[in-house]
Specification:
This protein is mainly β and 128 residues long. Helices cover 0% and strands 26% of the residues. It is built from no helices and 7 strands. The mean pLDDT is 88.
Length: 128
């Protein structure tokens, strides 16, 4: 894509026109000038570095986790008909090593009684 970077303007020797042995006008009838101030330089977008990973979100019922990180198309930002960055703004990842599987504690079955200790003066006993 290209734009014309030069403008032309004209004038004539008619304000008033020379007459009755009058001299012709002095100076150019065509003026050339640039219009760079009306144009821009095409700049394609570029990615920033990836940001830090977010906090790991754990699913304790499965012991798995996910996190994400972002980047932006501002290094540089696309301008003047430049192309946007190609690719994803968001990167998802796994962080299973930072998660644990929730395991609730559970009691085992009772073991057998060891022995009965008797108090013969009262006639009572206690299992150990």
């Amino acid at each position: 894509w290209n734009r014309n970077l030069e403008w032309n303007r004209t004038r004539s020797c008619t304000n008033p026109a020379p007459s009755c042995h009058g001299r012709d006008c002095e100076g150019d009838l065509i003026d050339h000038g640039t219009c760079d101030d009306l144009c821009c330089q095409t700049m394609n977008g570029g990615w920033t570095d990836w940001e830090y990973w977010s906090t790991c979100v754990c699913d304790h019922s499965t012991g798995t986790g996910t996190w994400n990180r972002t980047r932006s198309c501002t290094n540089p930002a696309p301008s003047c008909f430049g192309m946007d960055c190609e690719g994803n703004l968001l990167d998802n990842g796994r962080c299973d090593d930072q998660c644990c599987l929730t395991v609730d504690g559970g009691l085992t079955d009772w073991s057998d009684w060891n022995s009965c200790e008797c108090d013969h003066s009262t006639g009572t006993g206690t299992w150990n």
